[in-house]
Amino acid sequence: TATNVKCYTVSSVKMDKEILEKAKKLAGYKAVDDNLKSGLRVGIGSGSTIKYVVDRIKELGLDVICVPTSFQSTQLIVNAGLTLSDLSRTPELDITIDGADEVDSQLNCIKGGGACQLQEKIVAAASKRLVIVADFTKDSQAFGQQWKRGIPIEVVPMAYVPVMNKLSSMSLKPVLRMAVNKAGPVVSDNANFIIDAQFESISNVAELATKIKMIPGVVETGLFVNMASRAYFGQQDGTVKERT
Ligand code: 5RP
């Protein structure tokens, strides 16, 4: 019956979400346990997995200096009662822990599913190490196997049409990211727009990242090339897979 179908759908969606949340928590907790101690200067990434990193820091009572990568991340730090700083006061960080939308076999990442890639990249670049925390669905050999929404690219609003045209001429399929209610474009924490550039396959990630970055109007891309040194992927069976 229709009622049965509805019940099945609701419960299976709920179960999937529970599995994913468990995997995110496993990754976040292990990354903190393995990499953080009091006294460190820590970049705090953005997204749903990073919540568990902040939870674990709080649970362990670690006295770390936290530099956020977004408005969301600032709220997480403040709400947890952790020490909040910024790159003006703390320009050099020991480590950043952040999420990712897809991580390839070389630890290159696609980031920006939450439109935070500009500040995330700035904070990661100010850090000695970037450690990624993610559930098992982000674990990939080559980009596009897992993440289907394309490369998030932050652009200056007045440039979005010429930037999209240039991306199309590079065999990418650019889509302007719209707000959930479709009332207008998503606006980043830096008052820019986000273009998601879909692709068939990427032969040279570093080359593509440079080409996109060179387009006038592009502020930053969600391709993080050679930045991460370790990734933790929470698994369905309760273990955590590491990649270095
Ligand atoms: C935000 C990001 C996030 O780190 C990325 O989208 C992963 O998010 P989640 O932990 O929710 O899967 O890059 O711009």
UniProtKB/TrEMBL annotation:
The keyword Amino-acid biosynthesis does not apply. One of its GO terms (molecular function) is ribose-5-phosphate isomerase activity. Pathway: Carbohydrate degradation; pentose phosphate pathway; D-ribose 5-phosphate from D-ribulose 5-phosphate (non-oxidative stage): step 1/1. It is an enzyme of class 5 (isomerase). Pfam families: Rib_5-P_isom_A. Its EC number is 5.3.1.6. One of its GO terms (biological process) is D-ribose metabolic process. NCBIfam families: PRK00702.1 (NF001924), rpiA (TIGR00021). This is ribose-5-phosphate isomerase.
